[in-house]
Amino acid sequence: MPIDFTHLYAAFADEMLATESRKSLLTNQDFSWDGTCTVKVYTFTTGIMNDYGRSKTEGNWSRYGEVLGLDASTETLTLSRDRSFTFAIDKLDEDETKRQMQAASALARQLREVVMPEVDAWVYAQMCACAGNKPAAKAITAGNIYGELIKGSNALDNAEAPDAGRVLLITPDTYLLMKQAKDIVMETDVGADMRLRGVISNLDGMTVIRVPAIRVPEDFGFLIAHPVATVAPTKLADYKIHQDPPGISRGLVEGRVNYDAFVLGNKATALYYQEVQ
């Protein structure tokens, strides 16, 4: 008869690798959705400049020019992402995996490997789709990447986006091209606190952040962003562990997250998105 050998399982879980969220460096939390799912943001027009009529005596009574009113419009920002998950941890499953399958660790794993990547991917997709500067898709190589990055930085300059706080979002593939480009010299002397937040270097006054390709749109080349352009609220992040609820022996995990991302119309030009062919 064949021998049924004993198996020993180590009290260790081979966890999936997951990158921490970087979106806080590219977005802002300028508005509050407390008590509502919709925020309206005013947009105002401005007055035109005239030649002062110092000796003007006819026509319009004002020497400052024709008196015009200012118009006001609104942007409506309504949260559209209301997502949830649930799963159970059986008491015997917990015991027979040497307590490696526990509700608390399972919840942490869900947040790290599922929730956070989904939120990031949604935010980056909205920023790319609504970018005010979006040149035609092109091939990016080690030979031309520096020129393309400088074009993006120049576009933000012409749009009068703030100089301080600009962020360059790239994937590992783009980063590889940057390291091969002879014209690019990146400042890698980054503080430990910033490295923990995902900053890998600085280039042309921009903070460089690298994220996995799975979290950005297909054909993503790079995105230059100033946080002033994008509001990325998380109104609700509610996670619960119920011990021995009716019908379940041990733990029931439930989670709900209500979030979204909005690019403000007047600030969309503070985003430059380059697709690749």
Shape: flat
Profile the largest sheet.
Answer: 5 strands, mixed
- SS-based structural class? alpha+beta
The strand line-up of the biggest sheet is 5-6-4-7-12
Overview of this protein structure:
The protein has 277 residues and is an alpha+beta fold. The protein has one domain. Helices cover 22% and strands 26% of the residues. The protein has five helices and twelve strands. It has helices at 91-96, 103-129, 145-158, 172-180, 192-196; strands at residues 38-44, 72-78, 81-90, 167-170, 199-203, 206-210, 220-225, 230-231, 234-243, 250-259, 262-263, 271-275. The strands form four sheets. Strands 5-6-4-7-12 form a five-stranded mixed β-sheet, with helices on both faces. Strand 5 and strand 6 (206-210) form a beta hairpin. The protein is flat, with a radius of gyration of 26 Å.
Characterize this entry briefly.
The chain has 277 residues and is α+β, with helices and mostly antiparallel strands.
Short key terms for the protein model shown above:
26% strand; 5-stranded mixed sheet; 5 helices; alpha+beta; 277 residues; flat; 22% helix
Write the layout of secondary structure elements.
Layout: E1 38-44, E2 72-78, E3 81-90, H1 91-96, H2 103-129, H3 145-158, E4 167-170, H4 172-180, H5 192-196, E5 199-203, E6 206-210, E7 220-225, E8 230-231, E9 234-243, E10 250-259, E11 262-263, E12 271-275
Parallel strand pairs: 4-6
Antiparallel strand pairs: 1-2, 3-10, 4-7, 5-6, 7-12, 8-11, 9-10
